Every structure is written in structure tokens, then in C-alpha cells.
Amino acid sequence: MTSFLFRVIAFTGNEDSRKFFLEGELTLNNIKSFGENFLEDNLKPFYKSDPIPETNDEDVKIVVGNNFDEIVLDESKDVLLEIYASWCGHCQALEPTYNKLAKHLRGIDSLVIAKMDGTTNEHPRAKSDGFPTLLFFPAGNKSFDPITVDTDRTVKAFYKFLKQHAAIPFKLQKPESTQKPESTQESSNQDLKDEL
Fold this sequence. Notes:
The protein is an alpha/beta fold. The chain is 29% helix and 15% strand. It contains five helices and seven strands; from the N terminus they run ββαβαβαβββαα. The chain has helices spanning 28-39, 68-71, 89-105, 155-165, 184-195; strands at 9-11, 19-21, 61-62, 78-84, 111-117, 133-137, 147-148. The strands form two sheets. It has a five-stranded mixed sheet with strand order 3-5-4-6-7, covered by helices on one side. α3 packs across α4. The chain starts with 8 loop residues before the first strand and ends with a helix. This is Thioredoxin domain-containing protein. Belongs to the protein disulfide isomerase family. Residues 46-167 form the Thioredoxin domain. It comes from Lactuca virosa. InterPro entries: Thioredoxin-like_sf (IPR036249), Thioredoxin_CS (IPR017937), Thioredoxin_domain (IPR013766).
């Protein structure tokens, strides 16, 4: 005798396209209760998420569905988020520029440069029309829709966009006096200043 695994799913099918899974045993009462709760909008939607990274100390922070609120919706930070797909050629072409931008800005505590794989992670605030999608979430203003970043894909253009839209003003950090004169941060800042 063949055994089948069944899963009951409810799907809104409209613009927000939320999915809901029936948890627990597949009984008539559970299905009825699930349907009623779905119609009354009393269910918690399901969103895909990769595992939360054990460490996230690179210049570009890794966002997944389950840490999106903690990183992107942190009201004390201005956040630039790239939603990408690993197979996307435009995303691969953008990566060196995006990494360079994050490296230049890593000393600014109020600013987060982040990326999320849009093929394996979902969040209701991370809407993309294609890959890559760049969204800016200003500090203190996370309840509103993010700003879609529509600028040249250069370090200089991204920097100017961030200077213009950041809710918390920032400037490039000067190297600490304890660092060597040719430190990575100093040369990184000089590189950005040369580009600007």
C-alpha cells in the first residue's frame, strides 16, 4: 500500500500573495478551523527563509527571511538592500561594485549595506520586480515603502544616493591614529574620495 504525504495550503493569490500552511493533524475539524481562520485573516503567513548565518560580520550583511526584521527594519539604521539571484548575470556584474561600496562605508555604524537571495527568501517588505532590485529603507521611517534605487550602478552614484537619502547624516571615517598610515581603511577611504 502506497503512503501519500498531504499538505493543506491556503494562498491569497492577490498582489501580496501570502501562503498559509495547516499545521497539525489532517482532520476535518482542523481543516474547518484552518479555513475559518484563513477567511478571517487570523493566520500567520509562511515566508521562505535560508538559515540565519552563524556569523554576519562581512562588509555586506546577509539578510534572510528570518532576520529581515532585525537587520532591514531596524529603525536606528539606514539600510541599502540588494535582492539578487545567484544565477543572474546582472547581479554577478553588480557584486564587485556593491562589495566595494560596502568596504568604503563599513565604519559608518548608522548605515547597513545588505543583500538577500530573492529566490530562497521572502518577506512582505522585500518586493522585487526582477533581479537585482535595490531598495533603500531610511532610518526612523520603516513603516513606509522603501525607496527603489534607480541610479547608475557605480560606487560614486550609490554613495551620492545614500548621502542624499540617508535619514542619519554620515561622512567617511578618518583612519584611527593607531592604524598604519597605509591601512586598509585609509586606502579604502582614499579610493572612494578619488572616485568621487
